[in-house]
């Protein structure tokens, strides 16, 4: 087992915001079972703000902690702010991740961005 | 906190008798077995006694046993040693797709040197079909190397049949018996096995102890050249305490094999029944009957192995997994892939290996924790939610 920071262990053992928001405004999925990690983020948007965010994650300790951290970082942020969250920042907030986990498990920000893009595409389509 | 070790394949405590036998060879009998004077005498005799005990475990004469530091080393000495000796002309080696990395990786290296390697497929239990071995043999085949039993999923190969086929074509047959030796009866003479690797730490001997059986008449080139220790096949001063420990462990394993195996099988089957009753969508990996007594390997649908392993550790339960995240190369187990397990189920695999401190009294504790952790992780798994939505039995 890799050496995880206390912060990672905290989020792994007590993951925040698990689940799927009801009638999501945006959905973003990344990963697949072959690489070992999958994340599905669902968001609720109100007045250009992420009002609620939840996730489902199949993956290792790092993947679960990353998902939990991303959900905390994104909640209450404007879409523009949330889009600026990077995988690197997430890893930093978690007190670092083992080197071999940086690539495969650290996809939470990507999943969040996909959910935002999904919302924006839908919003544009209904506006058009 | 209560602890339950279910990872005895990784490491197990020494038998007390093994440790006691070893200790004098660190201190009072510290001599070098190659010395011409008296100090070398006791260590030399101890090594020969160990050689007899290891030989007896696998039905061999003592003189055909070469001590090594691991089964990995024995595998390398067997394969590379035989190929380099070049007694039989040819460039073709046959193995299986579920071998240990100490076979697979050196064969990759030999391929780069121009040798051709056939990796026989296995069925969904991990068994090699003897007919496929027969079909793969050519007049260029110089070696067949197939494990006695799989260390991960426990499946026991039809060793006698496989060895007989190689023997009928006059091709040396090597078997990696690291997981099998000490746990199931092996007789190299009766089975027609030409080379066999074993590891002492797999049957409660010390780490850093291993051996290679080499049938008389088989020529090998040493990996380590130097002095004439181990018939010149492994230069370097002998690790006398480790060899003594290996010998004692082999003796104990032979004397108590039936008892140890029966005890392990009984608990393993009860543990299996208990977790399968408590947790839906579990899958057994490996052969249901033809498997090593102490091995259980299951895949837990919809969840990933490292997360399971970490949560189980928090409950004091130690297991290993074939998931990508728990492997150093970040690839899921090649064994599970070879037997056709889906990527998702390979990620959720758990290898449970019983050992000397395993007790059936721990079964309820193991089951309760595994069930609770599985539910917790499934509730946050997108694959599980998808399964519930689709309501399909595609797990």
CATH class of the largest domain in chain B: Alpha Beta
Compute the average pLDDT of chain B.
96
- Side by side, the strands of the main sheet of chain A go 1-2-3
Order of helices and strands of chain A: HEEEHHHHH
* C-alpha-based Rg of chain B, rounded: 22 Å
Report strand % of chain B. 5-15%
What does this structure look like?
The complex is a heterodimer of chains A (128) and B (395). In chain A, strand 1 and strand 2 form a beta hairpin. Chain A is elongated, with a radius of gyration of 14 Å. Chain A is built from six helices and three strands. A three-stranded antiparallel sheet of chain A has the order 1-2-3. Chain A is an alpha+beta fold and 128 residues long. In chain A, 45% of the residues lie in helices and 21% in strands. In chain A, helix 1 crosses helix 2. Chain B folds into two domains: 144 residues, Aspartate Aminotransferase, domain 1 (Alpha-Beta Complex); 238 residues, Aspartate Aminotransferase, domain 2. Chain B is globular. Chain B starts with a strand and ends in a 5-residue tail after the last helix. Chain B is an alpha/beta fold and 395 residues long. In chain B, helix 2 packs parallel to helix 8 and helix 3 packs parallel to helix 4. In chain B, the strands form three sheets. A seven-stranded mixed sheet of chain B has the order 2-8-7-6-5-3-4, sandwiched between helices. In chain B, helix 7 links the parallel strand 6 and strand 7. At the A-B interface, strand 2, strand 3 and helix 2 of A face helix 9, helix 11 and helix 13 of B.
